[in-house]
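DM from R.C. (forwarded with permission)

"hey, sorry to bug you on a friday — could you get me a structure for this? deadline for the figure draft is monday and I only need the backbone to look sensible"
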Amino acid sequence: MIEITPFRTEFQNQLVELILNIQQGEFNVPITAKDQPDLFVIDEFYGKDGGQFWLAVSGEQVVGSIALIRIGNNAGVIRKMFVQKEFRGKAFGIAQRLFDTLLAYSVQNRIDDLYLGTIGRLHAALRFYERNGFKVIQKDSLPRDFPVMQVDNIFFKLSTAKGQKFID
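My reply, with the result:
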């Protein structure tokens, strides 16, 4: 059984390993652990201002993650959405469960707009975001306080305000 749970420090090393294996090993993204200091201060970085970080855990193994950074104007930024290759797809539904957890938290906490940045070659991720109602936006349409990652080249927005999940 796979559980979606808030981050716990006992999973710190597994989380970093999961993310780096996917970024570097699978997708050849030129990013290191040093480029992502947030991975070593999860509670402080994501928990401030009402954000959150969730894990998908199978037994005692981290198999997925998703994070929310809360920024100004009732907006949030999705980060660190990863699922281990062997646990991807509709059979497991982990990505959807992680996203649904983040979305429910956002609606409950009056986060009206969700933004994210990603890399164009992550085709399955792009389809996932579009299937969940995200719309592609230009980089110059991002909120001023959106923390842009150097490797991101495609940006998305989803409005969650007043139950209008799929209306921009």
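R.C.: lifesaver. Confidence is low (pLDDT under 50) at residues 163-168.
me: no worries. The domain at 2-163 is CATH 3.40.630.30 (Aminopeptidase).
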